[in-house]
């Protein structure tokens, strides 16, 4: 039986534990090793990220847009049958690559994903604190991308990760539910991955209330019973609403001079808060510090949860019922606007593709700004000078311009810059130069790196295939068009439709 090929994608925020996550992958026997390992640096301002030298390893940047976007950029940059996702703080054992291959081998076509078992060590010398119990819950969580492998075809079919989940919370659950909605099964493998026990800090439970906003989006996308499908018990939000309402009533009664009512409601609030505190204290170490922290946070959590829920409702309404925001189209240069002449430094060789002028005229007449974002690795390779590239760009501008913005990446594939597509830097910079957000822009190109860069930036990506476009890139593209005119018309028509129907365009849905 042929062994399944797989790539590993590891989003990181620069944790020092990254090296431990990568070590067994790089040391694996070639028979079991991944085809490639893609590390996606998701820090807003990337700094040094020491990585071992390996031909398997590739570094991409995702610009601090969250783990969903980082994973999306990572898997779309690969071409394997399976993509395994690991977090940067897990500790796979030495046999993890071999056991992953064994888990994937022979899976029937209706199985789209395999989850590894997560082991979290129990604290020594004391019962787990409230924050530690939150980490221990990972042992029973379903379909979390701390260790989850997906079949590429399934990711392509459902459109990958949803970047509207901007935190490390619910983005993996959302993907799993969409995969199952598409008719696939998800299974648990036999491989094991260790996850360190995190204390989270004294106020971790307050920060965790931001999850209430993400839960709103889950309910809007998957219905009110989505928790049942992932084996999760209902949350305590209704309890928090009642507690917060009691506190608000007590404050209002006191402000209007109704002291008895204020005292009665205050007593109810105090009793509810005490019950909540004990519920959180009783399974833990019950030391003075933990009791104090639980008492303070138990008083703050109910109103904070309500605030985050309201915030989530407003955000979800905006995301799901807004207008199209496409105000600019950023075109790839070579193979898209002009014929692809490898490492061209001669302006006389510039030839626009047949549909370029008509497409640009259509875009400008529709009020769209237009720009160019182009990888020019010939500079880094010593095959071109920046002056030659600028001269060619000037010729393109003369024949097809004027363009509102130009961005060029002079780096090579291994330089680890934030601008080289499929990284989002050029799209982000071009949008900023136009006074827009990346989500206000669309990117039109002829290869997968173009639409992947759009996805990483939160822009809309449209692929216009040519002879250079790979079949895997065609299948993975969120949207395709037959030529440049068709691509621009697609953007104009979608904007009109969204305005008429009150929809917002979402970048990973074809």
Automatic annotation (TrEMBL):
Location (main, coarse): cytoplasm
Family in the record: Belongs to the GmhB family.
Highest taxon listed in the record's lineage: Bacteria
Organism whose genome encodes this protein: Thermobifida halotolerans
Gene3D superfamilies in UniProt: HAD superfamily/HAD-like, Spore Coat Polysaccharide Biosynthesis Protein SpsA, Chain A
Protein name per UniProt: D,D-heptose 1,7-bisphosphate phosphatase
Pfam families associated with the record: Glycos_transf_2, Hydrolase_like
GO biological process, one term: carbohydrate metabolic process
Domain Glycosyltransferase 2-like: from-to ranges: 8-128
